[in-house]
Structure formats: structure tokens, C-alpha cells
Amino acid sequence: MTDFDAEARAILVGNDRGGYTVPTKGLYPYQWNWDSAFAAMGFAAFDADRGWRELESLMAAQWPNGMVPHIIFHEVDLGYFPGPDVWGTGREPATTGITQPPIAASAVARLFAADADKARLAALYPKLLAWHRWFVEYRLDRGAVCITHPWEAGRDNAPDWDGAMASVDTSGVGEYIRRDTAHVNPEMRPQKADYDRYLAILYFGRDCGWDEVEIADNGPFRVADPSMTFILLRACRDLAVLGAELGEDTEEIEGWIAVLEAGAETLWNPEAGHYDSRDVRTGQFAGSLSCASYLCWYAGLVDDRMLPKLQSVLARVRYAVPSYDPDGPEFNALRYWRGPVWGIVNYLISTGLAEAGHMTEAARIRDDTRALIEVHGFYEYFDPLEGRPAGGAAFTWTAAIWLIWAGQADIGAN
Ligand code: GLC
Fold it and tell me: Are the beta carbons of 328 and 338 closer than 8 angstroms?
């Protein structure tokens, strides 16, 4: 075990709040959905029981309709805005009313490989199935997964949403006090115009009682997104394997996989020559080459059309993978999802590349992630040009991907 391994473990243990992990102290004081899935994978490297508990606490917050919320507000913390009172979901424990990337089934697959506890798998399986079914029932547009709020994609202020966000009416938002900019440098965070829109969309959901049909028909924001589509596709493949392990009939999941594969193709922007987000309200592509575009391999698609674009981007940055095209008009090396490198996305991209046999690119992405962590520490994200660390420190998911991938010798079998 290296010192970095020990530090990564200590970060996970230090961010443990008793059955769930916070992403980092201060800035994010609650349980976040996809952060928890990465945390579980990290725990699987040294404490499988704690890994299972992470996912069990996440899935315990599932809504009756199958949705698994993006934040679970276990204990009120006034240092975070918008908190439970703003979301008004009436759930116990309180949660937000939107979801996040469905990594959980893939995390369960990893945990099960480390600790083949069939009883725990059998308890989680129907919940995962219900969550995936919720996506298929409420969130598909031509087979691609839609987000109803930028926070659902986990890529909060990506340029991908700029077009769709521009038409969100913020006239009813009023005054509010942000908390995030008290914890970290405002230059690294979304701007006020973004926050006004995040709240306008939130208020729409709250005011209709989080009615998915009303949100689909009249919500202010609906974008079909490659990251959600590719991640759900992968999660369905992993869930089908888990179902087979339990002797379940997986025909329904196989059907979803076929639908999502067709949906992924609707996200191919032929003019730009890459996977892209599509505004469902206008039918327009975003024209944004983002880190989500490279998740096609992780989705298990046999499709190398993105390879030249990836190689070109790798040649233009010191540290891969920038969350947005470094030569794009909206690129900003420090502002959150508008340029910086995110270790968890690197892990997903590199895993897919390795599985598809693109070992050079997979290794480059792993090595860059490792170097960033070794030189700067377990930060939330990093500048792709100079490697400057950004956002929160001692970050759970950065520690987790160190333990399962960035700090490991073998990059193939993740
Ligand atoms: C930010 C990120 C999101 C993450 C959350 C907690 O909102 O954009 O992806 O889940 O922080 O780490």
C-alpha cells in the first residue's frame, strides 16, 4: 500500500457520516447520488461491508415512483443552498426532487465482484430495476435520456446547456443567498445567471409537486444528454449480468438496452461530427464537444467515430480529459464543467477505452489523472492546461477513483 492509497482510504473514512459519505467537508454536506456510487466502489477496495452500506443508504431514499434523488439531506446544514426547505419534496429523509447519473448498478457490480453477497445483491436488485424503469418510463426522448435540470447530469454548468438555459424565464426567482461561493473561489463556480436558472427550474418542479408528466410536458428545461444516456446504457448492461446471477429473467432490461442504443444514435451530431446534447424543446444540438461525448465506449457501443476527436483533444492539453473542447468558444480552464478535468469522468472514459482495446488513450488518461493527484492532492477537479487544483479538497470521489483505478498498475480490468 502506498502513502497515496493510505491517504485515499483516510479521505473516505474521514468523509463517512455513518452509513453515507459526504463528497467533501463544508461545500457539500449531504449524500449525493453518483458521488455515493463512486464512494462505494472506493470502499470496495478495502471494506466491502461499508461499500454495500453506502449503496443501501442511497437506495433507501428511493421514491415510490422509482426515482432515486440527487441529494439526500440526512442532517440539515445551513452551509448549503438550496436546502430541503427550498426543494419541498415532503420526503423523509428530505431529498431533492431530481435525479443524478445512474452509476449505482455498475457500483453494485463492482462490489459483488469484490464480495459476492447474494442476499445483499438480491435486496438491491429490485430497487435498481425500478430506478432504471423510471428513466425509461419518464425520461426518454427518441430513446435518449433527458435531464430536466442541469444538476441531473452532474455537469452543472456545462456549455452543453447554454442554449436551453438561455430561454429559462427567471423573472420569478427573487433574492437568495448562495453558500457555495463562501467555501471556494467564485471564479471556479457557476455564475449568478446560471444560479437564477437553476432555481427557476427547481421552483417549477416544486410547484407542480414533482409531477414527471407535467415536467415533461411543460417544464422549462428538457435536454437529451449523452452522459446520462451512455451511463444508463452501461448500468443496464451491468444490471442484466447481476440479474442473471440471481436467476432473474432479464428480458425487460435487454429491451431497454436496445432502446437506449437506438437513442444514443439520436445524439450523434452529423454536422459537428461528435456525440452531442439535444434540446428537446427546439430539436437543436448544442454543438458542445464535452467529456460526455467520449463515454460512448463506456456505454459498450462498438463505435470508434469519436476516436479522432479524442486524439485531437489529448494532443491539445497537458492533462486529459478537459470537460469541454479547449479551443471551443466557452472554454474556461477553472470554471467547473466548462473546461476542468474531473477524475471520475476520466475513470469512466478510460475504462470504456480499455474495454474497447484503445490502450494508448486509456493509459494516457489514467496517467494524467494519477499525476494530477500525486502532485496536487485529492481535489474535486483540475485545470487541464496547468494542472492547478480546484474546488473542494480531500474529495471523496477523487479518493475512490484513486483506489480503484488511478493508483493501480492494471488499467484493463476495471
Ligand atoms: C457538483 C457536481 C456534481 C456532484 C456534486 C457533489 O454539483 O457538479 O456532479 O455530484 O457537486 O460532489
Answer: no
Q: Out of 54, 196, 380, 383, pick the active-site residue.
A: 380
Q: Which residue has the cell 427550498?
A: 86
Active site residue 214: no
**How far, in Å, from the CA of 154 to the mean position of ligand 1?**
6
pLDDT at 374 over 80: yes
Pairing relation of β-strands 223-224 and 278-279? antiparallel
Q: At what angle do helices 104-114 and 118-138 cross, to 10 degrees?
A: 160
pLDDT tens by residue, 264-314: 999 999 999 999 999 999 999 999 999 999 999 999 999 999 999 999 999
Burial track 177-215 (b if 16+ CB lie within 10 A, e otherwise)? eebbeebbeeebbbeeebbbbbbbbbbbbbebebebeeb
Is 156 annotated in the active site?
yes
Residue ranges lining ligand 1, Cβ < 6 Å = 23, 28, 32, 34-35, 154, 156
Overall pTM > 0.85: yes
